[in-house]
Amino acid sequence: MQIKTIVALLIIVFTSIAHAREFPPAPGQRYDVGGYNMHIFCKGEGSPTVIIDAGLGDDSSDWFEIQDESAKITRTCVYDRPGYGWSDIGPRPRSSLVISHELEVLLKKAHIEGPYVLVGHSFGGYNMRIFAANHPDKISGLLLVDASHENQYEKLNIKLPQNLAKQRNTIILPKQSDQLLTDKAVILQERAYNAARA
């Protein structure tokens, strides 16, 4: 039994190493935001600066084509939340409040000043709404693209299984327990990292 476990772990480690080599270099810059690095990539010139936050499971590269078009008009930045794209994994527990603060630190470290037009896609809509609420003087616009909402299940009359109903806002609202996991990508990346360290 131990041999099978060791073989499985070796496969995970070597697969992780192989994929790590295939990952292209970061197109933007990475900044330390408190013991871990976050990636931001800006193009174009002008004001206000457009800041794009991708949906759950997506990273900045999903918005490169939109960024190219927007950058013809004004400065446009895409960034990767911790655990996505070229950003390191961030601390737990994760919440949109935490993500909003991380974005604030990232923008300061990268010397990207407002005013901002915030674009939040799907899950990114939560984060950008919180950022806008916390920094109204720096915001000149907020664009929500198919954005999620904390009450969407009730409003759309979606019935979740009891165990999921309690967890649905875990990543949005700070909770006392950090036992609940967040994103699929973060979980997989952590599993590969932990397997490599074993």
TrEMBL record:
Which Gene3D superfamilies does this chain map to?
Answer: alpha/beta hydrolase
Signal peptide range equals 1-20
Q: Which Pfam families match?
A: Abhydrolase_1
| Highest taxon of the lineage | Bacteria
Q: Signal as a keyword?
A: yes
PANTHER family listed in its UniProt record: SI:DKEY-122A22.2
Name the record gives this protein: Alpha/beta hydrolase
Q: Which lineage do the record's taxonomy fields give for this organism? A: Bacteria, Pseudomonadati, Pseudomonadota, Gammaproteobacteria, Thiotrichales
